[in-house]
Amino acid sequence: MDAQNSKNSTNSPNNPYETVETDGNSRAVSVCMLKGGVGKSTVAVNLARQLASHDHNVLLIDLDPNGHASVGLGFNDHYHDTDESIGDVFFDDADPSSVVYDTNYEFDLLPSSENLEQVEREIVVGDVFQPSALLKREVVDPLLGDEYDYIVTDSPAYRSRLTDNALVATTNLVLPLAPGNEAMSGLERTIERQIAPLRKHMNVDVLALVPNMLSGRIDQQTQDRKLLERLNSHDSLQDRIPNFARITDWEAVDAGESKPTPGLRDRTSITKAYGERKPLLDYDPDCDQLECFDELAHIVEAGEVVRHG
């Protein structure tokens, strides 16, 4: 279904987005953060799956040399097969569709490869015109809007040519953060080292900040609470906080009058879905965290956080 003519939908009878139209634009999005262990691959895979569940044509590009998203979708053999990779598209004029595969979960995958680090070295040392624009020129521009309504990239957790390529090609970012002492410093590094330099040359939009892997109570001074407080008290970030992570009345929380469980929460189903090489929707369609991934899909469709209630 064409993105311009589609309407957001979900199986929930109480979907607050059921009357919200997409903005009609095909869109490429990077899930990125200059910090490991924040669940980027989980967010990327399940964001792609939820967008596909809304009747969109979706491509997931795994640019992480670790290949977590690819392996988590059952593409272990493709990851270890270095005969075909995105490097062929970058340097040998291969058609991008030649390295794209059907996941059997309603979206396609351009998988990572063991030789991605070598591909990255070739980008750096090779005689390449505009080395940070390879992904945009060779993959995203030819496919977005024609073959796919949405393209999602899973980026490396470190500054690299691959990460720069992802940001240049997409210009729309979803930034996961996990609780911990370095949560906000990872966000600050990403803004200072990646986003700010690119904004001198192009529009780069943070669509959503996603507190991920939460498990603690928030009526006590846990790491979960600290992360949520900092995000929700930062004026410049308010428009980027999804509804599932937004807290506006901490006094009610502390008084026991409100007991929310904000953010993407740790669930056994999420871990088991990875082990079964499936997106969460296909492993456990009743998991409560699917509502969060569904909102992320709506944010990508609308190009912004849509407030409700």
Strand content: 5-15%
Rg over alpha carbons: 19 Å
Shape: globular
The helix/strand class is: alpha/beta
Overall average pLDDT: 88
Tell me roughly what share of residues is in helical segments.
Answer: 25-40%
Q: Trace the largest sheet across and list its strands.
A: 3-4-2-5-1-6-7
N-to-C span: 29 Å
Name of the CATH class: Alpha Beta
Number of helices: 13
CATH homology superfamily? P-loop containing nucleotide triphosphate hydrolases
- How would a crystallographer describe the biggest sheet? 7 strands, mixed
Count of domain modules: 1
Low-confidence stretches: 1-13
Provide an overview of this structure:
The chain has 309 residues and is of the alpha/beta class. The chain has a single domain (23-300), classed as P-loop containing nucleotide triphosphate hydrolases (Rossmann fold), CATH 3.40.50.300. It has helices at 40-53, 68-72, 76-80, 86-91, 116-125, 134-143, 161-170, 183-199, 223-233, 250-254, 268-275, 280-283, 290-302; strands spanning 27-31, 58-62, 101-102, 108-110, 150-154, 172-177, 205-211. A seven-stranded mixed sheet has the order 3-4-2-5-1-6-7, sandwiched between helices. α1 (40-53) crosses α13 (290-302) and α6 runs parallel beside α7. The longest helix is centred in the middle third of the chain and has 17 residues, at 183-199.
